[in-house]
Every structure is written in structure tokens, then in C-alpha cells.
Amino acid sequence: MTEPRGDTTPEWEVFCRSAESEPLSHVGSVSAPTEEVAREQAESLFGWTAHTLWLCRADDVARFTARDLGAESDAAANADAETAGGESR
């Protein structure tokens, strides 16, 4: 069993858009007690390349693994398509 970490400082996920026309990308995370401190840290680390920075508390982010997203069923569908002579997705 994994023990919880001793530091209870909230973690913030940082998303960046390098140009207005670019998609939003996850670039990392920071630990900070408040949104203001998280913004300062994110700006210091990632602001030099950012057109826009987005922050959200890590506790508010839903995370899914490839298995959660159905990667196994996609792989099976691709194998079936290849066996039948079709193209894989």
C-alpha cells in the first residue's frame, strides 16, 4: 500500500498554448498553497514559451489510462480489420 506523501501542499496541473492558433498542451505541474503562487511558479517555469497558461488543481483533473480509454478493444478491432484485409485505424 502506498503511503500518502507528507506534504499536503496542493498540486496544480499546468497547460500551455504557445500560440493562439495552437492546441492546449499539458506541460507539467507545480505545488503551491494558492492559485496566485501556482501562477507565479508556472509563469516562471513555462511562461517564456506560453501565449496562454491554464492552471487547475490536480484533484480536479480526471486521469485515465490507456486501458480505461479502451486501448485493448481498439487493438483487437485493428487486429480483426487486418485479418479481414481491411485497414487499421
UniProtKB/TrEMBL annotation:
Originating species: Halobellus rubicundus
Top-level taxon: Archaea
UniProt-recorded name of the protein: Htur_1727 family rSAM-partnered candidate RiPP
One Pfam family cited in the UniProt record for this chain: PaaB
InterPro entries recorded: CHP04031_Htur1727, PaaB, PaaB_sf
